[in-house]
Batch of 2 targets.
Target 1
Amino acid sequence: MDITFKNVSFVYQQHSPFAHRALDKLDLHIPSGSFVAVVGHTGSGKSTLIQHLNGLVRPTEGDVWIGDFHLNAEHKPKNMKELRSKVGVVFQYPEHQLFEETVEKDIRFGPKNFGVGDREIQRRVKEVLPSVGLTEDFLDRSPFDLSGGQMRRVAIAGVLATKPDVLVLDEPTAGLDPRGQKEMMEMFYAAHQEQKLTTILVTHSMEDAATYADHVIILNKGTKYMEGKPEAVFVQKEALQQVQLDVPEVVRFLDLFEKKFGMSIPYRRQSVKDIAKAIEKVMTGGSGHE
Amino acid sequence: MRSKLIEFRNVSFRYGEEQPWVLKDCSFEIYENEWVAIIGHNGSGKSTIAKLMNGLLFPQRGEIFIDQKPVTPDTIWEVRKDVGMVFQNPDNQFVGTTVQDDVAFGMENRGFTRTEMLTRLEEVLAAVGMPAYRQTEPHRLSGGQKQRVAIASVLAVSPQVIILDEATAMLDPKGRQRIMQTIKDVQHSKDITLLTITHDLHEIVQADRVIVMNDGQLWDEGLPREVFSKKDGLKEIGLDTPFISSLAEELKLAGISLTQEPLNHEELLEDLWTLHSRT
């Protein structure tokens, strides 16, 4: 589903002394099937943006389209439930939302709520388990006896079982160890490709954004500050520092390398291996340019 | 000679009779004014170690000493004066309705005089860069500011050791850097022993020594440089190495022989430059 924000503002506690403008005339377009990373420091409006995507809040001004669903201050789609069944949101620390007696009941809760038939749910439960890296022997266990990482997988299975078209991920790897982080991101990337999802990743990790996203949107003070392909956005060191963000470590290194050696190795999201090869070339007298 | 501040002697711990051992026969020592980082995958026993240090948990086997005192149910109140802790979620550790009440809470419990409380309050809020927020309600602070107040509260009662259990995990990268800078400044000015439990590779690189936990056992300990040279092993136990270590590894594979395991960009570039000027 295509997602479009047109001139969207959102004000918390409007008409009160605490009024706070979290989104400010935000325009953006996310084409169906893309993997977009939304990056911005704390308070830049990322969470408010997410809440618009499945109609938890409606814009104070402006228009939001999620596929055919249209939201604005006056207009609320009648079929809000249908919108929510199309947009799956994995909130921060989703394991805090588990509540059922067994893993199976917890995974079934979402699709059941959206009126999916019993046999179809059965089929989906079996289907999503391997994609989150769990096996069927987990189904009868209490989610509260699992490790933090396993609990998070159960919560994500519950979202995937609703078969969303749009998957929204809010800092999905926070608190996991490095291997857990990598496995989790690989899992989302596989789901994105297999199920042709439109995926929106909200993250602090420039590295994850550079690895998985095909488009990056930088938010600042509730509005779009920059956007483009990761390799174009992530080399703009000064502009990013202006909004309290850092370039990925590899870009920082290549920058220092150029200063020291007077030769540049352009950042193209290449692997560490390829960077090592390019350095070796410079060292042995070749040029960094190809 | 450096004096021992914390000692684990053959410590084993499990959460219940039927449960698996979370720590298995762990022994290590931490010295005064040292900064030690503990790393390990989720469930490797890192946080359990922190909880054992100030008597939130007690081991089934082995002994723990803080400043020569054994940690037992009888000594925990003494021990807790020496060991301050800051946890991952700043929202779970506030008791006061304003920043200054919160910082004062620990001091009141220890029976500090009012004059002394006021002096220290000024001092610790200045140390963490929060003097302007004395009267602010904690819930109006950002995550990073909350963690700074939590650190100030711990500092106010002058512990000998501060444990940061994933205390920066919920902050954004800039917030993390600022907190770590605050902590470094404080450590230098106050002679405090620091124990950080973390996944953040940048934090580990700055520590004096690293302890690597795997499945409840001490897998390795040493200087950050030594630990990060064992890349294959670290990967096997679910950990990562910093970008700069991975790059050094790939450079070696590409036929460039570095003179040492680099810890930061400057070291690696310096090494490359030296090699380059020789050819």
Target 2
Amino acid sequence: MSDVSQLLDPAAEEEYEIESTEGGLWTGSRLFVGLFTMAWSGVAFAYFYLRAIDRSGQWDPHHLTPPPVIGTLIALCVLLGAFMLEYGRHQLRRGLRFEWLTAAWLTALFGAIAGGFQIWQLTRLPFYPGEYGYTSVFIGFAPLNVAMVLGGAYWVETIAARSIRLRVEVGPDVHLGESEHAAARHLRASLAGCNFYWWFMVLVSLLFWILFYVVD
Amino acid sequence: MSHVEPPSEHPGDGRVARGANMPHFARLFAIWLLGTAIVEPVLYFLVWPHIPPGTMTDAARGAQFDALVLTMMASPVVIAVLEYFVYAMVVWHQKKGEPPEDGPPIWGHVGIQAGWIGITSAIVMGAFVFGTYELINTAGSGGGEGPSPIWTPAETNDMLTVQVIGQQWLWTYRYPQFGGFETPELILPNHTKIAFHVTSLDVIHDFWAYQLGVKADANPNVDNVAFATTNETGRFTVRCDELCGIWHGAMYNYGYIVSPTTFYKWATSTEKKLSPLTKILPKFAWTYNPSANGAGGGYYPASDAFYQVYKYEYGTSGKEGNLPAVHVKPSGWKPSQAGSHHVRER
Amino acid sequence: MAATTMELGAGATGYRPTATRLAHPWLSLNVITAFLGAAAGYGIGHWIGNYIASNYAVVQNTGQNNVAVVLALFFGVLGFVAGIGGLNYPILKIFGRQPEERAPVQDWTKYFRFSTDHKVVGKQYLVGVIGMFFIGGLFAMAIRTELTNPNTHFFAPDIYLQIVSEHGTIMMMMATSLVVGPLGNFLVPLMIGSRRMAFPRLEAISFWIFLCGLMVILTALPLGGFDTGWTGYAPLQTEAAPGMDAYLVGFGTIGTGMILNGFNQIVTIVNYRAPGMRWSRLPIFVWSMLATSFLLTLATPVLFVAGWFGVLDRTAQTAFYVNTHGGSSYLWENLFWFFGHPEVYIMAIPGFGLVGEMLPVFTRKPLFAYRVGAAGMFGVALLSFFVWQHHLFVSGINPDMRPVFMLTTELISIPTGFIYLIGMGTLWRARIRFTVPMMFCLAMYFNFLIGGITGVYNSDVPVDVTIHGSFFVMAHFHYTIMGGLLFAFFGAVYYYTPLFTGKMLNNTLAKIHFWWMFIAFNFTFFPLFIVGFLGMPRRVFEYAPRLQVLNDWASASAYLLGMSFLVFAVNFVWSVWVDPRPAPANPWQSLGLEWQLPAYKMPWYNFERLPIILSDPYHYGEREALPVAHLQGVLALAGAGAGGGLAPVGAVGPGPGPETAPPGGQADGEDQRR
């Protein structure tokens, strides 16, 4: 019962490990979003909690918000980036390398711009950090938002760079969208996770955009 | 093969017949019954009167009784588990000299598992129901209920209001029904409902009147209310029970429950004696904003802030007259108001 | 860069070493460069901080301000991680490169490097957590020294509070990683038949960050310490000395390590199980790691955010926790305990898992009600997210929610009870072997019984009004964490040291350690329940003289308890390094997959060929049972080493039968060298 024939043959074993890595990227990206969700719920909890108890009447800054145009631009950049990445992924599936790469770089650019805007906005606030509960929560939110969008940009950038390098490593004619090459499959898995993360960023951006600029 | 199967699919133990379980069950049950029969009366008759925090107030008495009930519920469980482990160690160990063997492959037992879940659930629900009853029955059982308590004593007209102010590292007390004088002494009348309004001037403290069974966090800008009805005269300890800085360990003093007439005498004379000081104290309020700029480095009423809280919690009229009953409007308190509130015996 | 399959990091061959070219050990990154990086980072951060905010010195003319301290610590951690080599991969990725999957350094210096071998990381963690435990333990000795007398003082009150706070924080941090770190990283891939953790570099980083966290916390002492205890309640937190920054940054740092570790464990367990390792065959320890990791991954971000708010309050002058500016000190209490209570179960569940793993081996029976046990751990994990306000029963918030939180808290005792069900069911008509690990397991059940039952007292609001914040609570959680987790951990250390090192620990010393620790532990903490019930608050340096006798008793016992670990340390050093005795393969005759492997001498990629899992590892007492896995060809160690160190499992009893022996295991040969 214990002969070698009952083990996986090397090819099946290789396939098994590739699938493990693919699955790991899938699980990892979802879990990543899960842990970010918990972190953002901490911020959202602070927002709602302080707003609700309003201990000393100091929650409300009386229609004072951070520059709303910049804030809207940030959310818009994230939204555009997510759509762009979705588009790029579609092009990758079709085998259009140039379109995919352009979309990916644009996505990374949108992420970087969103992060930059967020930092710029922090320098143009019409209030002091501790003036109100609202302002405190905003100051807490903004750097985390920078980290989130720059992280998204970084992720896309690494995938784009990787797909360029794969042309060198695997061969220039490889159809990354369909190749069964392990590297290509892992690239696609990572891209799927990244795409998921970008849509999550859209949700977060919209939620906090509404909380900070729309809700009175 | 799949993992946990019903016992029938694991014929397993061929060495010992199925009925071999019964003697073990019988012995274990007998020992358990004996242990429980000994321990429970001991708890009820001998231990109960000595369970902290004593019987100085209804809250303390409730906590004491609750602790007794929990102990009486927990004891059979503890006895069963300990007894089982000792029994297993004595009876079911690998004997010296015997060839090492494996035990019978028992993978589970639906009845035992279901029974276990059922029994533990029943015990837990029992503890929960009783704890909740006790919590409501003694008006929050002496715990701080925040600015708008939901469990209050039935009658609140005759309640004595004591404001407890924590600051680093001292407790002081204000008696709004006696002109709002402030003193480091905590004197309470017997047979009286007391509403402790606990607040802080700086960091979080915790007002723990140990023998009264009262504990409430002293948060800055929060009026944390706890109730207790006094029941015995005597001395009790007040400690700070939340880390509040370096002298936290030294932040304690003693309070006294005295007869209502003694209390009234003390309160009125202290009110008179301290009246010059009371005048320069900040006006009585439920919370205070500490400020380094206040007179004498003191503090002043957080009036604005207070009314913000007030508006949020009680509506918009914002006048003290509309305060809920527990926020007694500072007016007189007479010893005749005490005396009718004997805490019922159990 | 040459294109090879290997560099693409894929495929079965990808994880095995081919020709490796190692840099000179002294020129490549190691812990020394890490410390240089940390020092540089600290300096840079401090300089930037003073550049920004030198006008806001905490004490005039000290040059010490909170911005500088926070940035110095942050950059110090960053410098450390860069210096150990943790940033190489993220930077390479920017250029689209994958790191070479090559063999890590093989000589002893691998323990001082950024190693992607999960077995090395496990050992690094082991030394790390034990060291951290001893440091925290010294603080505990100091606390007990101060409390030998109610009003004569050994320490100034501020020093005393610094000691208390350091003890609490270090122990809490240590305990969160105590099992997941060393045993989780070492054992999980072996138990599930994987060649590696899912993200080996994250795994390595998680350890070095964990170490950074400890160092950051210790820097609080030269910065003036922090006097808030490990809970760091807010108004005090906001106004505390710069040592508080070390607490906040330290928790953030170690929290990051916890998140990464848990994240890695989950992905590994979900995706890297060997063929045939169904969920129903997963060892119970792996289940406990999975449940714990979910808590680590999902609860810790909340602490991270709470600490971030605290840092902002102290540096950017926000007002999250400042009541008068629209904040609330309750916000910290809520966020902290929303993390803090799951964290308590982060410390309990691994102990359950270890005990569940060891009991079948020493009772020679299958684990009773395996599914119920796994479900119990997940039940505890899930419920732990809904109980946090039981820490705030007297705080004045949400009185209407008290019955709810009382209910959820008491409900947790149901799934916790499952752990007793599986334990007691496994003991039923067992063949108990009183080995040292088994004694630790039984002691864990005893201690946790007391810890758990007293937990019900805490959850009951009327009783909690008396015992909240008192020594009763302190004794309660020492019984659950130290009595539960620590006992299970030390049992596991005795149990797994042969697997980790190939050496047996001295049995006599081990027994002395056990009895000494067990008795001293109970002598120390049981009186403290009484002390607490009699009215002694936590974290005080003065107490009622009537409590002195009990306190002195506890202090004396605490010294003994502290000394018992010296026995362990001596035993460990002696048996592993000074006078090593080779352990027999599988000395406990376990059926677990990890015990069929000579883990201590396996290559970094574990398996030449992936094992095929055939059954769960608990088929004790079944003659016809299948072996746990196919292992022939799986272990191709140099020459005779293959299965050579493995004794047939069935050799000791009729038990599972000879088939369970790893196929091809030559019981003679290398085995004879003992």
